């Protein structure tokens, strides 16, 4: 999930945490260049350590790179595609995509998989429906990949896509990045995202959790704030940093009473403000543990391949090539803190020259600019 940040105009940007084959070309004339399996005949509309507790889940896989991941360990960065997460959705998204056949067809394919008219909800809402976890996640996945097609359709777009040498996405956006990089098909990715949204919603319904964005403190201070709050609540209500978004902006997740304690104590820790996030529950903590087994089962039956370019994991800010490692990390992503700040810092330190945010909103662009005012980032909105 994406979190709230302030841009240069002091407007709060809401973002509660805010594909294809193995070839590098991945092109089909006039249908869907990203997804080689979408042929005309098939398109008939069918580094932070926490004590173990209720919220502090650990990930045994991914803490050390797999021996199979060696080919991506020293990856180089020039151009990057960045995909948004839940919270970036907005009424009207997807409308522009209907002007490009290869983008429009993605929504038609999605309707078959999801069983409802996704484009209608994206364009017309209502807002409450679009913002629900079970709909916003598929909507963002499809619309962000449609944005890739809009970019491809413009002059020089194909060359830009071919120049991308690394990709990543914020929370849900990691699935979009993996689809773009050819780790799984558009359809398989959408099925996973659909199940992920449903499983996260069910896990949230089974518990009493919440999230709050803490603005104006560094991560060490936010951790101290969490520690102070945790001293006043039971084990089941404890909180943790769930999203390391960018300096001065971190999302805290956990039990309702723990979140209320964070809000009450924030000013005494010199936080600029706190903003309760409009999400279903305590995402990226062990409150989401009931969703893990469902994701594991779905991932086990999904054909996942080595990505053609590095895809940076939210769990440990590293790329992975081994399909089994990718499956394990995706299953545990919903209970693990999002290491987005480390991801962006690493890309910048490796010499990132140009990046593109593909999908609705400009939250990721704001994050990158906050970390490097001179960063060159372009928004591609569908």
UniProtKB/TrEMBL annotation:
<dbReference type="InterPro" id="IPR016035">
    <property type="entry name" value="Acyl_Trfase/lysoPLipase"/>
</dbReference>
<dbReference type="GO" id="GO:0004314">
    <property type="term" value="F:[acyl-carrier-protein] S-malonyltransferase activity"/>
</dbReference>
<feature type="domain" description="Malonyl-CoA:ACP transacylase (MAT)">
    <location>
        <begin position="82"/>
        <end position="381"/>
    </location>
</feature>
<dbReference type="Pfam" id="PF00698">
    <property type="entry name" value="Acyl_transf_1"/>
</dbReference>
<dbReference type="InterPro" id="IPR014043">
    <property type="entry name" value="Acyl_transferase_dom"/>
</dbReference>
<dbReference type="InterPro" id="IPR001227">
    <property type="entry name" value="Ac_transferase_dom_sf"/>
</dbReference>
<protein>
    <submittedName>
        <fullName>Uncharacterized protein LOC101488982</fullName>
    </submittedName>
</protein>
<dbReference type="InterPro" id="IPR004410">
    <property type="entry name" value="Malonyl_CoA-ACP_transAc_FabD"/>
</dbReference>
<dbReference type="InterPro" id="IPR052760">
    <property type="entry name" value="Mitochondrial_malonyltrans"/>
</dbReference>
<dbReference type="InterPro" id="IPR016036">
    <property type="entry name" value="Malonyl_transacylase_ACP-bd"/>
</dbReference>
């Amino acid at each position: 999930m994406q979190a709230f940040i302030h841009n240069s105009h002091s407007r709060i940007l809401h973002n509660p945490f805010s594909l294809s084959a193995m070839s590098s070309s991945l092109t089909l004339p006039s249908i869907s260049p990203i997804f080689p399996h979408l042929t005309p005949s098939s398109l008939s509309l069918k580094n932070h350590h926490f004590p173990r507790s209720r919220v502090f889940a650990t990930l045994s896989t991914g803490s050390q790179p797999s021996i199979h991941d060696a080919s991506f360990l020293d990856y180089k960065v020039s151009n990057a595609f960045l995909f948004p997460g839940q919270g970036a959705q907005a009424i009207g998204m997807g409308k522009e995509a209907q002007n490009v056949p290869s983008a429009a067809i993605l929504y038609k394919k999605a309707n078959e998989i999801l069983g409802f008219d996704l484009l209608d909800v994206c364009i017309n809402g209502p807002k409450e429906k679009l913002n629900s976890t079970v709909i916003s996640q598929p909507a963002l996945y499809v619309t962000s990949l449609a944005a890739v097609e809009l970019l491809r359709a413009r002059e020089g777009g194909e060359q830009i896509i071919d120049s991308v040498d690394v990709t990543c996405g914020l929370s849900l956006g990691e699935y979009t990045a993996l689809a773009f990089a050819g780790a799984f098909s558009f359809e398989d990715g959408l099925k996973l995202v659909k199940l992920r949204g449903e499983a996260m919603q069910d896990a949230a319904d089974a518990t009493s959790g919440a999230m709050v964005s803490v603005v104006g403190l560094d991560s060490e201070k936010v951790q101290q704030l969490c520690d102070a709050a945790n001293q006043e609540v039971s084990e089941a209500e404890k909180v943790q940093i769930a999203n390391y978004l960018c300096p001065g902006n971190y999302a805290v997740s956990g039990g309702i009473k723990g979140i209320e304690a964070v809000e009450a104590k924030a000013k005494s820790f010199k936080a600029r403000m706190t903003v309760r996030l409009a999400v279903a529950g305590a995402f990226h903590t062990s409150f989401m543990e009931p969703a893990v087994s469902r994701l594991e089962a779905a991932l086990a039956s999904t054909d996942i391949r080595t990505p053609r370019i590095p895809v940076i994991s939210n769990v440990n800010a590293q790329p992975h090539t081994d399909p089994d490692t990718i499956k394990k990390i995706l299953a545990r992503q919903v209970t693990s803190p999002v290491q987005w700040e480390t991801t962006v810092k690493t890309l910048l330190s490796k010499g990132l020259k140009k990046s593109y945010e593909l999908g609705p909103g400009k939250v990721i662009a704001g994050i990158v600019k906050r970390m490097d005012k001179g960063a060159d980032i372009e928004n591609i909105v569908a």
